[in-house]
Amino acid sequence: MDIEALKKFVQTLAGAAQSIRLYPPQHPLVTRQLQICAGNLAMLFEEKSALRLGLADGILFCDEYLFRESNPALAEMTRLLQALELEGLELRAGIQPEEFTEFFTLVNQGGWQARGLEQTLEAQGIHHIIPLRKEDEPRKIFRRALAVAEHICQDVTLGRTPATDDAAAAVRDMVRSTLSNPHALTALSLIKDYDNYTFQHSVNVAVIAIAVGRACGASELELHILGLGGLLHDLGKLKVDIGIINKPGRLTDEEFEAIKKHPRLGAGIVEQMQGIPQEVIDIVGGHHLHFNRKGYPADLVGRPLSRLVDMAAVADAFDAMTTLRAYRRPVSPRQAAQEMRRASGTLLHPEFLEKFLRFLGPYPVGTAVRLRSGEIALVTLIAGEERQDLRLKVLFAASGAHLERPYFIDLPEENLDQIVGEVDPFLLNIDLDQHL
């Protein structure tokens, strides 16, 4: 990377940002600065397709260079990012000077605040400037776990034995987060990335299994075992024909027999990993045994297994029900709770299930509800463990109109009768990633 070109680019961009606040966008000073900026940027894009401009501890940086020096133009760029509450901007190859002009004009005038910055940029056709939001700690933990799960799957696909250290570290962070903020990671597990189902399902089951364990009074050590077992539970599917795994519709008897091998195949992989407790191997091998032990694999039936196996099975069932698959439409968390109760005592451990459902509450995070007022809101937070006080984000008016400025209300447990029913968030195009 040409550091001098990078420095010149940021200096001229910051100067243009400052000038656009002081002069009309068509002013010769602005035009000249953006032309110089575009030339330096074209040189940088010869080496990479995107640049990241942001703040690190309040200091402006661009990719590899930290601007420890300061001047009015750089201070202006810093002020702008702080005002937008952004971690940074990603600038993508193909950007034109006009996009910078429109971007800085837009943010200076505050014309994005009603719809939100991302939506406004999209509507204005500004596709090469991507806002990077500051992630809260649970979201960072979740994303790191996704990266770990992807690396583990890559190792298995390439015939390598996955390393244990990264997985254990990811689980340690998830346990810490769940102990301090019980519902945060569970809420993130409801934001589905269908393009990366394999990785996300593994992380989701780890997160939910830790939540099940917490609801059941498991020790911190047991929570780590549950998280690691959840993260690794489906590795055996990587050894099964992908056509069978993704087949829409009913499996043939032969195909189902192939699927039934994945717990044993997964346990075989995990056994080779360094320092893996037997309880984790039991979770991987036994997560489809069912509470009545009439599931598979048959060779584990009758063997004494850790109670954590049944806790992980509750987590696996919950994530499977709330995820879109080729053969199944997802259900809401509340509907999943109702379906799971029908499997209580046969497929799922009744005591562990009830404690987990109590943890989720009568209206779990991610449930869209209709209020007596006619408004539609999304449950974004359960305020306590002993009580079921809810925080709702009201998204639709009683008329059915989408609110451009949603607002929050708190609903104490004794006022839950203000909720008259559940609505399908998919039919209303409610983006959980935006609101949770």
TrEMBL record:
Domain HD-GYP: 176-372
InterPro entries named in the record: HD/PDEase_dom, HD_GYP_dom, HDIG_dom
An MF annotation (GO) of this entry: hydrolase activity
Record's keyword terms, sorted: Hydrolase
Pfam families linked to this entry: HD_5
Domain of life where this protein originates: Bacteria
CDD domains assigned to the protein according to its UniProt record, in alphabetical order: HDc
UniProt protein name: Metal dependent phosphohydrolase
